[in-house]
Amino acid sequence: METKIVPLDEKLAAMPTLARVVGMRTMSADEFVDGHASGTLRKNKRLGMVWREQYLEERVAYEFGWEFQCLPRSRVTFGDAYTEGDEAAITEAGWHIERYLQLSLYPEDQFEAKYVNVEYKDGTAREGIGMICRQTSAAWVPTGHIVFAIVAEYDPLQKRWHPARNPR
Q1: Regarding beta strands 145-155 and 68-72, do their DSSP bridges make them parallel or antiparallel, or are they unpaired?
Q2: What residues make up the domain containing 48?
Q3: What pLDDT, in 10s, does the model give residues 144-164?
Q4: By the 8 A CB rule, do 129 and 150 touch?
Q5: What are the residue ranges of helices labelled H in the chain?
C-alpha cells in the first residue's frame, strides 16, 4: 500500500487564513527549492546535480515534520502497533501521535498509528511505533512511495526502546 494522492479540499484551499500553507502544499518542486530548500540543495540543483532525492527528503520534513520520510513502498512494511504498560517511549509515542493527528490541517491527510519497519538502500534498517500516511493531498509525493514516521524506535539488538521523538 502506497500513499494515495487525492485532490486538495476546495473549501480549505479557498480560506484566506490558510493561503500560506495551501500555497506551500501546492507549489512546484522548483518553487520549493528556490524558496525553502537548503543552500546545498539550491546550489547543487543549479550546478546540474541529480537533486530529486534530496528535494523529497527536505520537502517531506518541511511539510509533514522532521521525523517523516518518503520512500518507495517496497522498502517499508508495517503492522499493528501494540501498547505495553510502563514503557515511557510507547506512552510518549501515543502522546505525540495523538497530538499530530489532532493538529493536522488537511482533512485529506489520513494517518494511522502502526509498527513500522524500514530498510534503507544502504542496507541499514529501523523499526518502531510510528505513523503511516494512507492518503494525502500533497501531489508531489511520487507514485509508488509511502510517507511515514518512526516516533519511538526499537533496537532489536539491544532489546530496548529509544525515547520517543515529536514528529513535528
Answers
A1: antiparallel
A2: 4-161
A3: 999 999 999 999 999 999 999
A4: yes
A5: 10-13, 19-26, 29-36, 39-46, 52-63, 88-103
